[in-house]
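Practice problem. Given the sequence and the SMILES for zinc ion, write out the predicted structure.
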Amino acid sequence: MTGVITYRTREDGFLIVLVELTQSSIFLAFLLDPWKAGYRDFDQHKGSLKDLKRKLGAPKLKFHEIPKKEAALLLRQNVEIAHHLGIDIDEDAMKWMNKLGVMKIDYKQALYRCFNCERNDLSTDQIDEILAIASREITQGVIGTDEEEQYFKICAECENELHDKHEGQSHHHH
Ligand SMILES: [Zn+2]
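Answer key:
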């Protein structure tokens, strides 16, 4: 797709994939929760990025440009999570994702990836645990509220690294 620049920003509790349509100065903002509920919200904005940030209530957000493929894969993953949990996706958001080729991707990865490296898939047990929490919270209607359960799940590789660091530190103290 030409005339498209893709960005992302990650904050505590949400991730935004931003698609800039350069010819029409339109920004497509996809609010995602790749750690639990997947696709969350969509906003289409004509104007400057500064105005969009103000509209999102986060003037200090910093967006980093990412490859289009990476943006598409992120969107695909979050659609996958939402579908798995029975969460409806906004019609306009779907329309754009089809145009951007997101739905053509054959998604083969696990639903959730390591919260730390964002590269490795989580284990089946970790994924089942997240799905159980998400399903319960959807039923309770607490997704996106303060009552949401917080957790931080990491892959075995990151676990080992953290463990090594910890060991190193304790040796240092002895
Ligand atoms: Zn990891």
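Check your answer against the key. Strands lie at 4-11, 14-21, 26-33, 38-46, 64-66.
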